[in-house]
DNA sequence: ATAAAAACATACTAATTAGTATGTTTTTGA
DNA sequence: TCAAAAACATACTAATTAGTATGTTTTTAT
């Protein structure tokens, strides 16, 4: 069993690592950098994680996964109009969330981009993350079918992936074009959602 | 003036670097690795490029830019139906181009993802690259307006960015879900294109 | 043909990397 | 309270990094 303080140290490492990785990328964020900003020593780091990748995987499951889960529950309560909920989720992610910095994109998408092709374990962990999101959207779309707000012929799974994929794409464009392209995207996205009616 | 052999050496470095960067990322591809696979010595490398970033920028403008230009001219001749041309371009990029390896995504998109936020010079060079593609699509859409194949009310610039962004997004998803999600995406993409009529 | 410049080769350096060896301190359960 | 385990600290290592210093060879223009 681990002490409260030890758990705090571990979480501190994971959270600071998450911020650094968000801004600089996973592979170019060094363990030395992480321990420097956390004020934790190397001994503590490698006591909690047997190597850097184990920390990275813990970061995904213990910081990113819960963070996304929380955002999903808030954005998609499946109460009102499903298309409005989905649009609202997108708008909130792109324009309202104070954590995101446009030029750095989305931490999860960045991580997929960088690590999915490089490491099977990361691929799995990230796949889980993305799938969780896609499934939440699928559920919202299915609910929409029941309430007749969404066309019965729509392939909800395919549509959900298309939406997540679109999000990833515009996050990437934002790195080049900035906030303006988010606005344009949202306009186009609204049009797209209307084709699902 | 540079000799033919010297120009070949330089291009050889750029092309091999491009392949390595495609598979491993820019920052995690070392100069040592590049010169090892090119059979070029360090002296030659740093004779042609004063540092790694200068090589990276040359790679973008001298390998990636021309490569994309060639693909664009072939895919969008602006002769037949603009929507069919755009769909064909997407399909060919995702499913037919023998250079692309699904798990590694798209070299240009990867580069944007990794470098646009890290280095102003890279951001500019990549922005140019992406803008060039978007402009080609815009032109095709505009042509489509003239021939009445595309709705006059469509914002062609916004639509072009939306398409490029969608491409980037699905390239990222492909790293997780593989070829299947390309197929799904193309189906959805076709639907989307039809809304532009 | 030859001097000058261009092109390339070899051997180095200082900084950074992930990870380890070996400690000391702190917490925990009996 | 006290031994054992957990948690952390310090000092190291071997490999890798971008880049340089100093050469030699090749090409070019006259």
Structural features, described:
With 197 residues, chain A is an all-alpha fold. Chain A has one domain (51-194): Tetracycline Repressor, domain 2 (Orthogonal Bundle). Chain A has helices spanning 4-24, 31-38, 42-48, 52-75, 82-96, 107-115, 120-146, 156-177, 179-194. In chain A, helix 7 (120-146) crosses helix 8. The model of chain A has no long low-confidence stretch (mean pLDDT 96). At the A-B interface, helix 6, helix 7, helix 8 and helix 9 of A face helix 6, helix 7, helix 8 and helix 9 of B. Chain A binds a DNA duplex (30 and 30 nucleotides) through residues 1-3, 5-6, 9, 30-32, 40-48, 50-52.
Task: Based on the model shown, name its key terms.
homodimer, 197 residues, mainly alpha, Tetracycline Repressor, domain 2, 9 helices, 76% helix, elongated, DNA-binding
The CATH architecture of chain A can be named as Orthogonal Bundle
The CATH first-level class of chain A comes to: Mainly Alpha
For the largest interface, the chains and their residue counts are:
A-B, 45 and 45 residues
Secondary-structure class of chain A: mainly alpha
Output mean pLDDT of chain A: 96
Termini separation of chain A: 52 Å
Radius of gyration of chain A: 19 Å
So, the CATH homologous superfamily of chain A? Tetracycline Repressor, domain 2
Topology pattern of chain A, helix = H, strand = E: HHHHHHHHH
Can you summarize the main beta sheet of chain A? Answer: none
Task: Tell me the CATH topology of chain A.
Answer: Tetracycline Repressor, domain 2
Please give the domain count of chain A.
1
Oligomer: homodimer
Count of runs of 4 or more consecutive helical residues of chain A: 9
Report the uncertain regions of chain A.
Answer: none
Strand content of chain A: under 5%
Keywords (chains A, B): DNA-binding, Transcription, Transcription regulation
DNA-binding region (chains A, B): 30-49
Protein name (chains A, B): Transcriptional regulator, TetR family
Domain HTH tetR-type (chains A, B): 7-67
